[in-house]
Amino acid sequence: MRRTLWMLLLAVAFTASASQLSYADDQSQAKAPAAADEHTPPPSVTIIGPKDAHGVLGRDVRSPANEDMGHIVDVIVDRTGTVRAAVIDFGGFLGVGSRKIVVDWNALHFGRITENGESITLELTKAQVAAAPEYKEDKPIVVLGAAGNLLPLDDH
């Protein structure tokens, strides 16, 4: 009985010391990369309130006459990272017969999209969007803009 008790105490002591060594090794490994990056500044942090910004992918798009124009499926940026346009999945029923068109970012009005169910307004009619050429990846992009606000995409 005594021998079993001593073996149990020895096992507990060994396990505790091994876990402390393992913890100490984990801590030194965690700090090692930080020491190598002493001259790297910490990242900046911005906190945006839940009512101040929302994602746009998947959002419904409506015309000024409240017609269903589809939903945003992608955002196009230029080489500088500036948002230039949105890709809208337009037309069709349950994904059948729909096509993607590209609209100028400035033709979209976000209004008060504080709730996920609220839509974005597109400054174009349904007929104008229906006549737009279809967007195809790796092909020249034709961006449909509202009257007078479309800027050329620079080719650097």
Give me the secondary-structure topology.
Blueprint lengths: L1 H35 L23 E3 L5 E10 L5 E8 L8 E6 L3 E2 L10 E3 L3 H5 L12 E2 L12
Parallel strand pairs: 1-6, 4-7
Antiparallel strand pairs: 1-2, 2-3, 3-4, 5-6
Report on the structure:
With 156 residues, the chain is α/β, with parallel strands linked by helices. It folds into two domains: 1-43; 60-144, Roll (SH3 type barrels), CATH 2.30.30.240. The chain is 26% helix and 22% strand. It is built from two helices and seven strands; from the N terminus they run H-E-E-E-E-E-E-H-E. It has a seven-stranded mixed β-sheet with strand order 5-6-1-2-3-4-7.
Q: Looking at CATH, which topology of the largest domain would you report?
A: SH3 type barrels
Global mean pLDDT: 75
Provide the β-strand percentage band.
Answer: 15-25%
Which bin fits the share of residues in helices? 25-40%
Radius of gyration of CA atoms, rounded to a whole number: 28 Å
So what's the CATH class of the largest domain? Mainly Beta
Order of helices and strands: HEEEEEEHE
Q: So what's the overall shape?
A: globular
Strand order of the largest sheet: 5-6-1-2-3-4-7
Q: Which spans have pLDDT < 50 for at least 5 consecutive residues?
A: 1-26
CA distance, first residue to last residue: 84 Å
Query: How many independent structural domains?
Result: 2
What is the CATH homologous superfamily assignment of the largest domain?
Answer: PRC-barrel domain
The CATH architecture designation of the largest domain is Roll
**Secondary-structure content class:** alpha/beta
> What is the overall number of helices?
2
